[in-house]
Design a protein that fits this description.
single chain, 706 residues, Lag1/Lac1-like, glycoprotein, Glyco_hydro/deAcase_b/a-brl, sphingosine N-acyltransferase activity, mainly alpha, transmembrane, three-stranded parallel sheet, elongated
Length: 706
């Protein structure tokens, strides 16, 4: 007997054209929007009514939708539950994730609950192909696709995180799985995967949101529930789905054929494509699972370091950005950058979570702290009427005493028509774009650098220095200096010195206190360390308004008003020239430079605008050698010149070949040590991932056999 060909049963009389088949295929999978609605939108667009173009084109400005939900629902909610104002943005982002993932999970369970594939994976493949989709199911599936598609854009808008590459792989993998399953009629499997993923995501976002309003046992309990749900749904259940994909199609799929008119998109090799994508996703889940256990370990071993917990959670959560260290002068700023975006185009934050400041008791040896007067003030403890800030009884007058101008503070430039551009909190990977802009415009600026970021991006600091920009200190980890002890302040400043010196061979002589907070005690310590306190008399509040629809206009408006002669309310010394605070909107810089030049302003560094030719100090110099002269001598050390010319430096002992050899050997040893640590870490992750995968596979196999 002649063996029948499986394709023979699928042959039908061809009564329609291929184009008609394609149209029928697409119509079954589209979201069924009434034609009159589509026509109304198109008519409004062609009539040039602005609101209708929002339905057709992607925009980088804030529009109705997610932004409106955050502005009109989540920000008021943050205020209602007493979230600190500076945390509103982060709370709103996490709350939005709670709502989205919660609704997606609920609807996914609703779809699955009465279905035959509820806890029976064989029905993923029985009756294949299933081509009749309800309207609500199509909405559910395509909205999920749209959400993950926009997450690709979010990755480019927000700051790159430690697991940026893993996130890119995750999003691409997810989009491939969703599109492949929807087009090829594997939606039952897709529905199950959605449910497994959305539950822990919603609980994780809830834990983070709670951390902003009720930190402590409630937040930690929620995080514990998330861990349990993560292990059960993402590791165990998703592992079962992968096992089903590898083994059960052979048992239940009637025919492995490619015949689109009948809905069959399942030649045998497609099974391995789907399984391969799922396994790739599973390895990413194991990677994040290891990070979760790292968080748990830190909670157990370092219960007092609660900031570490929140930072590590940000590493695990691939829908949010890294936490920043926030404060009153940056109330709604959630990024520690020196440069950023045009309405969320290039959001720049440090890629690392809050850094632990290095401590070295040798840094205290040449500083006499015994005669420093003042008290440690709790962060944000309040405003005291008629406070005597130098009195020992006013330790809680934080707001009152944090920003009292002194004669030595630098707020602005003394000469008319001079402007010093300054940028805080970097460097970051987006600082390169800012440097390109400044180079093209032939403008020199001041970069207030964080030590932790300088260690991460030394080449960027080096480039800025060699280009003639001023490098100033902005502390190591951006703390509230008034809340630190005398010794801790020294550690913050010295650690930053070492980081900057390692990058460019010289140390800064200017420092901008984080948030502009520095009372007499803090300023006395900074002065003893040889620093000049750099403040500002122009604040465009770009860190607050850059996400608003008219944020660009607001930022430029401040510069235009001040340049046009409007008095600055921050001009404590009535300076004739200006120094600005700036953080987050690098793409406004060309327009700002153009505006200032059109008003006749000369743009310089902060040191240059006050006539100081020595903004940096060579490593061998002591603080008593700092000169504040106004003469025309070249104040740069010969070694600093050598660095600029040859792009080389020695951290200490300039000019000695023997010491140079020692330094080079030490640097090589440090590099080897770092490489060994990196290799060890990679091996640990690989080994742990292998163990986790093996255990999960054993559990799946046991469950399947039983």
């Amino acid at each position: 007997m002649k063996k029948s060909n499986p394709k023979d049963s699928l042959k039908v009389k061809k009564t329609t054209t291929s184009l008609q088949d394609l149209a029928k295929y697409l119509s079954k999978r589209q979201i069924e929007i009434p034609l009159k609605v589509v026509g109304f939108i198109l008519a409004g667009y062609f009539l040039r009514l602005p609101v209708f173009e929002h339905f057709i084109f992607i925009s980088n400005q804030r529009q109705d939708g997610r932004a409106a939900t955050m502005d009109y629902v989540l920000f008021p909610l943050a205020k209602l539950v007493n979230v600190p104002k500076k945390k509103y943005q982060r709370f709103a982002e996490q709350s939005y994730s709670v709502f989205y993932y919660g609704i997606a999970f609920g609807f996914g369970v609703y779809v699955m609950y009465d279905s035959p594939w509820w806890f029976d994976t064989t029905y993923f493949w029985r009756d294949y192909p299933v081509t009749d989709y309800t309207k609500s199911f199509k909405y559910y599936y395509l909205v999920q696709f749209a959400y993950w598609l926009q997450q690709i854009f979010v990755l480019q808008i927000e700051a790159p995180r430690k697991d940026y590459k893993e996130l890119v792989m995750h999003h691409i993998n997810t989009l491939l799985l969703i599109s492949l399953s929807y087009c090829c009629n594997f939606t039952r499997v897709g529905n199950a995967v959605f449910v497994c993923m959305d539950l822990p995501d919603s609980i994780l976002a809830l834990a983070k949101a709670l951390n902003y309003c009720v930190p402590g046992i409630v937040c930690n309990t929620t995080f514990g529930i998330m861990v349990i749900s993560w292990l059960y749904t993402r590791v165990y259940l998703f592992g079962c789905i992968i096992w089903s994909t590898l083994t059960e199609p052979d048992l239940y799929v009637p025919q492995f054929v490619l015949h689109p008119p009948s809905g069959n998109w399942f030649p045998y090799f497609v099974k391995y494509i789907i399984a391969g994508l799922m396994i790739g996703l599973f390895f990413l889940i194991l990677f994040w699972t290891l990070m979760i256990f790292k968080v748990i370990y830190k909670i157990i071993t370092e219960p007092e370091a609660k900031d570490v917990r929140s930072d590590d959670e940000d590493e695990v959560d691939y829908n949010t950005s890294i936490e920043k260290i926030e404060g009153k002068h940056h109330d709604d700023d959630d990024d520690d950058d020196d440069d950023d975006d045009n309405d969320r185009n290039s959001k720049v934050k440090p890629d690392e979570p809050k850094s632990i400041t290095p401590h070295d008791e040798k840094w205290l040896e040449d500083i006499d702290l015994d005669d420093i007067e003042g008290v440690v003030r709790p962060v944000g403890s309040g405003v005291c009427k008629d406070a005597k800030c130098d009195g020992s009884d006013n330790e809680r007058c934080f707001e009152s005493c944090g920003n009292m101008a002194t004669e030595d503070d630098i707020y602005g430039c003394p000469s008319e028509k001079t402007w010093a551009l300054s940028f805080d909190d970097g460097p970051s990977n987006f600082t390169v774009e800012l440097l390109d802009i400044l180079d093209k415009a032939n403008v020199k600026a001041t970069f207030c650098v964080m030590g932790a970021q300088a260690l991460k991006y030394p080449e960027i600091v080096k480039r800025a220095y060699k280009a003639g920009h001023q490098i100033a200190s902005h502390t190591y980890s951006h703390p509230h200096l008034m809340s630190l002890s005398n010794e801790e302040i020294v550690y913050e400043v010295r650690a930053t010195e070492e980081a900057i010196k390692a990058a460019i061979g010289v140390k800064p002589r200017y420092i901008r206190p984080p948030y502009g907070e520095a009372d007499k005690r803090v300023k006395s310590i900074l002065k003893k360390m040889g620093y000049k306190t750099l403040m500002w008399n122009v604040d465009p509040t770009d860190y607050n308004v850059h996400m608003l629809k008219d944020g660009a206009q607001r930022i430029q408006g401040v510069f235009d008003e001040i340049a046009s002669g409007k008095p600055s309310t921050l001009n404590a010394h009535n300076d004739k020239g200006f120094i600005n605070l700036y953080q987050t909107s690098i793409r406004q810089i060309p327009k700002i430079i153009k505006t200032l030049r059109s008003k006749g302003f000369k743009m310089t560094t902060a040191a240059e605008c006050i006539g100081d030719k020595k903004p940096h100090t060579a490593p061998g110099d002591h603080k008593e050698k700092h000169d504040d002269d106004d003469d025309d001598d070249d104040d740069y050390s010969e070694d600093a010149k050598k660095f600029i010319k040859e792009d080389t430096f020695i951290a200490s002992g300039f000019g000695s070949k023997k010491e140079q050899q020692k330094q080079n050997a030490a640097q090589q040893q440090n590099q080897n040590s770092a490489q060994q640590k990196a290799t060890s870490a990679a091996n640990s992750i690989t080994f742990s991932a292998a163990i986790g995968f093996t255990l999960a596979a054993c559990g799946i196999l046991t469950n399947y056999l039983i």
